[in-house]
Amino acid sequence: MDNFCLECGTKLMGRVDKKFCNDQCRNNYHNKENREDSILVRNVNSILRKNRNILKNLNPVGKAKVKKQELVAAGFNFKYFTNIYSTKDKRNYYFVYEHGYTDIGNDYFALVINTDI
After folding, report:
1. Measured between alpha carbons, how far is 87 from 79 in angstroms, rounded to an integer?
2. Rounded to whole angstroms, how far apart are CA atoms 52 and 37?
3. Are 110 and 65 contacting, i.e. CB atoms less than 8 angstroms apart?
4. Burial (Cβ within 10 Å: 0-12, 13-18, ≥19) of residue 99
5. I want to staple 93 with a disulfide (CB 3.0 to 4.6 A). Which of 3, 58, 100, 113 is the partner?
6. Is 106 left (phi over 0), alpha (psi -120 to 50) or beta?
7. From CA 8, how far away is CA 117, in angstroms rounded?
8. How do residues 42-86 score in pLDDT, each as one tens digit?
9. For residue 97, what pLDDT is reported?
């Protein structure tokens, strides 16, 4: 039974369970297989990185109060965050890594930094 490289189609010599003729073909094959997932992950990481930088720049001392419009104008995307912390009084803090925010009403958000990470 003849085996052929899954990437380039070259006839394989050697072990019967061999799938690729060399490391380059193996890497190319797996990179193509993972490309869609990699693009999705890269795009989400890019949004998270941007959100983190926005929170970091608007909160240089560890606690701040900003208008929602400041976040929106900077390009903050409220759909992307890394975790939620709920307080005993049911207030949710949304975190992008160590930088967090919560809605305090009247179009204002409190910004905080979690130093326990």
Report:
1. 20
2. 22
3. yes
4. buried
5. 100
6. left
7. 47
8. 899 999 999 999 999 999 999 999 999 999 999 999 999 999 999
9. 97
Is 70 exceeded by the pLDDT of residue 117? no
CA 87, chain centre distance (Å): 25
3-state DSSP assignment of residue 72:
helix
Q: Which helix (H) or strand (E) holds 32?
A: helix 23-58
3-state secondary structure of 46: helix
Rounded Cα distance between 87 and 106, Å, is 20
Tokens of 112: 């905080």
| Burial of 86: CB neighbours in 10 Å, binned 0-12, 13-18, 19+ | exposed
Answer whether residue 23 shows pLDDT above 70: yes
Adjacent-strand bridge partners of 23: none
Q: pLDDT tens digits, residue range 88-114?
A: 999 999 999 999 999 999 999 999 999
DSSP structural state of residue 12? P
